[in-house]
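REQUEST ID: PR-0412
SUBMITTED BY: lab tech R.K.
PRIORITY: routine
TASK: structure prediction, single protein chain
INPUT:
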Amino acid sequence: MKKIAVYAGSFDPPTNGHLWMIGEGAKLFDELIVAIGTNPDKKYAYTVEKRLEMLKLSLGDIKNVKIDVFTNLYLVKYAQKVGAQYILRGVRNSGDYAYEQGMCNVNRDMDPTINTVVLMPPRHLCEISSSMVKGLIGVDDWKTIIKQYVPQAVFERL
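STATUS: complete
OUTPUT:
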């Protein structure tokens, strides 16, 4: 059976941490679906189209990675819809761990056949988040700082 995983996020914008997760997920699974989640009640800095473009340009051509978008759907329900047996998540710190543990339990309540796989990024990527990147934009010399946290294709679009 083909091992399919979903790695979902807002990717608003994609970071080097996201790219690390995608690269590792592509090694672990036969197919990795990178799913941009959208919530109509949430405000995003970048449109879905822009986030999709930034991801595609940043990933290049990894043969077993597909990019998709899902709206107003529980992640585990999306995983069912695409035939995934796994949900891939990243944990950077203890706060992430507590959150992901709760989400794993809720997802397991909805579908015990879909497992959550958690990866911990290397130290130099642990502090990077889309929110942090957005918070740095606009401050004096922000381009010098942000360049180290996002892929080149994303940097050029910020």
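NOTES: The two ends are 41 Å apart (CA to CA).
REVIEWED BY: pending
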